Amino acid sequence: MKPTLFGYGLTTKAIASSLGGGCKIYDDKTTSAYKDDEGNEILPSNAFEPSQSQLEITTPSFPPSHPLIQKAQNLISEYDYFLSPLLNEDIPFSIWISGTNGKTTTTQMLTHLLAKRGAISGGNIGTPLANLDKDAPIWVLESSSFTLHHTHQASPNVYLLLPITPDHLDWHGNAAEYEASKLKPLLGMREGEMALIPKGVNIPPTDAFVVEYDSNAFLEEYFDIDASKIDFKGAFLQDALLSLAITKALFDEVDYEAINSFQVDAHRQEEIRDKQNRIWINDSKATNIDATIQAIATFSDMPIHLILGGDDKGVDLNELFESMPSDITLYAIGSNTNKLMELSQKYTLQCIECHTLEVAVDSIGAVLQIDQVALLSPAAASKDQFKSYIHRGESFREYVVNL
Question: What's the pLDDT at 354?
Answer without folding.
Answer: 98
